[in-house]
Amino acid sequence: METSAILSLLPAPTIAVAIYLLLRYKYPNGRFHLVYKTFLLGIAGILPVFIIDRIITGLHLDQLHSLNRTLFYAFALTGGVFELWKFLILKVFVLPSKQVIKTFDVIVYSIIIAAGFTSAYSLYAIFYPSAYISVSLYTFTIGPAFVSIAVIMGYFAGISLNRQFTFIELATGLFIAIVFQGIYRFCLLYNDTLLLYMAIGGMLVTGITLLIFSLRDREESD
Question: Which candidate, 67, 48, 66, 45, places its Cα nearest to that of 56?
Fold first, then answer.
């Protein structure tokens, strides 16, 4: 097994453990059932990915011999499936929880969900690697990519907590997450390093900006 393949397993669980330790430090007597649950549900997202991958392979939709097919694969079959699973966990398990009262809280859980999913997917990709994706590029970019996308989805899901009608905020967060995930996968499939780094830069700027907004709102509410 290549070193880069082994290293690709590290970013997601490392970030998950770091967040967990910070939460344990800040809330020594806190309840972490939802943290464990959402992380495990994130891992469980590999099951629909495996099923859809088998269907894609059986229908030969993974033969990316045209731009249209690559776009469809990156944005619909990959970005759409990945982000929809994370979104459903947020919507069904996180947003209704009484432990979650601020946008920043939703962002934290969104990152935990994404960390669980990405941990499982990185392991899955070792056994079922894509012929088009450079493992080294994936290894060095997956960390900032999945965290930034999780922050974006979590932010828009979080601001829906204070809305009577939540459809616009939830749909916006899901749509942007799918678009960014699709762009990321598209760049990986084409091995376009420059475009990939530009995309990662845009994701980071967007994610950091929204994270600052959520922290500012949290301080004002406190």
Answer: 48
Query: What DSSP assignment string belongs to 86-126?
Result: HHHHIIIIITT-TT--SHHHHHHHHHHHHHHHHHHHHHHHH
Give the domain extent around 144. 3-221
Q: Tell me the C-alpha distance between 168 and 37, whole Å.
A: 27
Token pair of 15, please?
């970030």
Convert the pLDDT of each residue in 151-170 to its tens digit. 999 999 999 988 888 899 99
For residue 1, pLDDT beyond 90 = no
The residue-averaged pLDDT of 178-195 equals 93
Tally of domains in the chain: 1
- Distance, in Å, from the CA atom of 153 to the CA atom of 162, rounded to the nearest integer, reads 16
Which residue in 97, 116, 115, 108 sits closest to 40, CA to CA? 116
Taking alpha carbons only, the member of 113, 144, 187 closest to residue 11 is 144
Q: Decide: residue 9, CB within 10 A, 0-12 exposed, 13-18 middle, 19+ buried.
A: middle
8 Å CB contact between 78 and 181:
yes
Q: Among the residues of the chain, which ranges form H helices?
A: 3-7, 11-26, 33-44, 46-58, 67-72, 81-89, 103-127, 135-159, 167-190, 193-221
Question: Are the C-beta atoms of 5 and 126 separated by less than 8 Å?
Answer: yes
Q: What global pTM score does this model have?
A: 0.94
